[in-house]
Amino acid sequence: MPFDRDGKFYEAGKTIEVDGGLAVRAKRGKIGERWWSRRFVDVLERVCDGGRLARGRAYARKGQVMDFHLTAGKVTARVQGSRPQPYAVEVTIAAFDETQWTSLTEALGSRALYRAALLAGEMPQEIVEVFDEHGLPLFPDNLDIRCNCPDWGVPCKHGSAVLYVLAEAFDDDPFLVLAWRGRDREALLGALRGTPEPVETVDPLAVEETPLEERLADYYSPGLSLGRLRERPSRVTAPPELLLRALDGPPVRVRHIPLVDLLKSAYRELAEPPSTVDGGS
Amino acid sequence: MLVIQAGWVPGGDRPGRLALWAEDLSDLAGVIDLDGDAETLTLKLPGTTRGPVPPADLATTRAVKLRSYDVPALLVRDGEALATLTGADDAGDEWLAGPSLRYLGVLAGFAFDLARRGRMLPQLVNEGGVPAARWRPVITGGDAATYRDFAAGMPPVVRATGAGLGRTLRDALNVLVDSAARTLMPERLLRGARPGPKAELSDRWVSALTADDPTLPGARAEDVRKLGAALGDWMRAANDANGPVRVSFRLSEPQPGEDDWGLEFALQSAEDSALYLPATEVWEGGRFPGMPARPDETLLAGLGRAVRLFPLLHTALGDQQPATMTLDTGEAHDFLRQAAPLLQAAGFGVQLPTWAGRKGVGLKLTTRSKSSPQSRAVASSGFGLEEIVSFRIDLVIGESAVTAEELAELARLKVPLVRVRGQWVELDDRQLKAALKAVGRRREGELTAGEVLQQVIDGGEEDLPIVEVDADGMLGDLISGQAAERLTPIGTPPGFQGTLRPYQERGLSWLHFLGRLGLGGILADDMGLGKTAQTLSLLLQERIDHQPQPTLLICPMSLVSNWQKEAARFAPQIRTYIHHGGERRRTDVDQDVDLVITTYGTAVRDLNTLKSGKWERVVCDEAQAIKNSGTRQAQAVRAIPSRTRIALTGTPVENHLAELWSIMDFCNPGLLGPAKRFRKRFQEPIEVRQDELAAEALKRATGPFVLRRLKTDKSIISDLPEKNEMKVWCTLTPEQATLYQAVVEDMMATIESTEGIERRGNVLAAMTKLKQVCNHPVHLLKDASRLPGRSGKLARLEELAAEIVEDGDKALIFTQYAEWGTILQPYLAAHLDRPVLWLHGGLSKAKRDALVEEFQTSDEPMLFLLSLKAAGTGLNLTAANHVVHFDRWWNPAVEDQATDRAFRIGQSRDVQVRKFICTGTLEEKIDAMIERKKALASSVVGTGEGWITDLGTDQLRELFELDLAGVR
Question: What are residue B758's phi and psi, to 5 degrees?
Answer without folding.
Answer: -65, -40
